[in-house]
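Risk mitigation, structural track. In case the binding assays with adenosine monophosphate fail to produce interpretable data, a predicted complex structure has been prepared as a fallback.
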Amino acid sequence: MKFQAIKGVRDILPPDSALWNRVEQTAREIFGTFGFAEVRLPIFEQVELFARSIGEDTDVVSKEMYSFEDHDLLEFEQVRSALMMTSLAADDLLGFQAYERNVLTFVAKLSESFKRGEVPRTPENEKIIRRIPEIFEQMNRTRRTHIESQFSFYEEAFAGCLTGVKTALQSYRFGDRLGLRPEATASVVRAYIEHGMQTLPGNVKLYYMGPMFRRERPQKGRYRQFYQIGAEVLGTSDAPGIDAEVIEMLMTLFERLKLKGAILNINSIGDKNCRPAYVEKLRAELQKVREQLGADSQRRIETNPLRVLDSKLEHEQAIVAKLPRIGENLCDECRAHYAEVKRQLDLRGIQYQENWRLVRGLDYYMRTTFEITAPGLGSQNAVCGGGRYDGLVELLGGPAATKGIGFAIGTDRLILSLQEAGEGATQTGLDVYLAWFGAAAQTAAIGLAKRLRGAGFVVELPAVEMKFGKSLGLADRLKARHAVIIGDDELAAGVVTVKRLADGSQQKLGEPQLFEYLRAGF
Ligand code: AMP
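Fallback model:
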C-alpha cells in the first residue's frame, strides 16, 4: 500500500522549511519588541468552545470542523451501531418486540453509566434516557388501537417510532465532543480565563503560531491543515491606540520580511448597540432582492446577513453595492472609536484603505475589523485578518470588563506571496564536505568535524569510506563550498587539503590556517 498525505494537507520540505523558520523567527523577534509573549495552546478543545465563540451558524463551525467524540466505551458504540442499522417491517411484531427489549436493555445500561458519571451528565443525555421508553410506550398504545382498524396509520407511526428511537440513540453522547481547532482566538481567551490572567498588570499580550484545521475545498492558498501566526491583546481598555499598535506590529513584521504590495483594509462593524439595527435593515433590504441572490446568500439572509457583503459572486456585486452601509449606521461611540483608530494609524504613518464590505466571517468581531491582502495569491489573497472582540471574554464566562483585539496571519499564504516575489530563503548550505580515506584518517576527520561544527560551520562527514572520485563527486552534488580531504599523506604532514569547489583551486593547510581560510570565505 502506498501512503499519501491526506487531501488538503501538505508536507513542508527543505528548502521551503528554512523560509518558514525565518518567518516564524522574525515574528517572534518583532512581537517580542512590542511586549508580546508566546502562548502554546492545545490543538483540540471542546467543540462547544468554538461553537460558542465563532458561532454555530458560521461555515467554520457548522461545516468545516473536524470533530469526534472522545470516549473509550467501544462496546456501547458497537451496540448503538447495531441498533441503528436494524430495519423492521411494520407487521413483524415479534421482531419489533425483540428490538424494543434490546433497546430498553441498552438504555438501562446507559442510565447506569450516566448515574456513575461514566458518560457526560448533560441534560440532553438525561432527556434521551427518559424519551426512548416513552416513544415505545406510545407506539404500543398506537398498535393496540390501530393495528386492526387502520393499518396505514399504524405503519406510519411505526416508521416514526423507529426514526425517533434511532435519532435519540444517535444523539446520545458517550464522551466529550472535541474538535481540532479551526482558529486559536477562542483558545487564547479560554486560557486567559482559566488562568485568571485578568489579575496580571496592564494588558495581556500573547502570540501563538501553529496549525489550524478546516475542512474547506482545497486550492492554492487554501488548505485543510494550514498555519497561523496570531496575536491577541486582552485587558480592560478598548483604546483605539491599541488597535493601531496591533496593526503597526503586523505591518512592521511584513516590512521586515520584505513582503511587497501588502494592502491594509479596515472597517468598523459597530457594536451590540448599533449592529443589530443595521443587521435588521440589511436583512430587510436583502429580502427585497432575495430572488436575485445565489443559494448561499439566500441562506445567509436568515443566518448571518453580514456575510452577504463578503460575496465574491460576480452577479451579486451590483446588488451588494446598493445595500445599506454599516459606516452610515454606527452609533456615536462606535463612530468616534473608528475615527480615532484612523487618526492613530495616521500618527504611525500607516496607510490603509477603508472597505465597508469587510465584515469578517466569525461572529465575535465588533468595531474595528481589518484584513491585509498580498499579491501573487490569486483569489485567496488575504494574508491576515483580525479585529476587535470586546464581548468574547464575557461570552466564554470571563470578566465582562475584559476587551480584546487580535489578528491571525495565514502563514501558508504569507510564504507563498514571499516566494512569488522571489523572497525565498537563502539556504545556509554546506560549508565543508569532509572526505577521509583510511581508518586513521576517519579518526582525525571525526575530531576535525566536531571542531568545525563547534565553530559554526555546516559539515558533512561521510559515514563510510568511499572511493576518492565518488566522494568528491558527492561533495559536488551536495553543493558543498569546500571539500576538505584527509588521507595518509595529509596525516603524515599534519595538514589537510582544502579544495574550493567553485573553481577547483586547492591547497594544503594546517588546522589554524584552515579555520582562517574558511572564515574568510564565509
Ligand atoms: P480567519 O481565521 O478566517 O480570520 O483567517 C485568518 C487568515 O488565515 C486568513 O486571512 C488566511 O490568510 C488564513 N486562512 C484561513 N483559512 C485558511 C485555509 N483554509 N488555508 C490557508 N490559509 C487560511
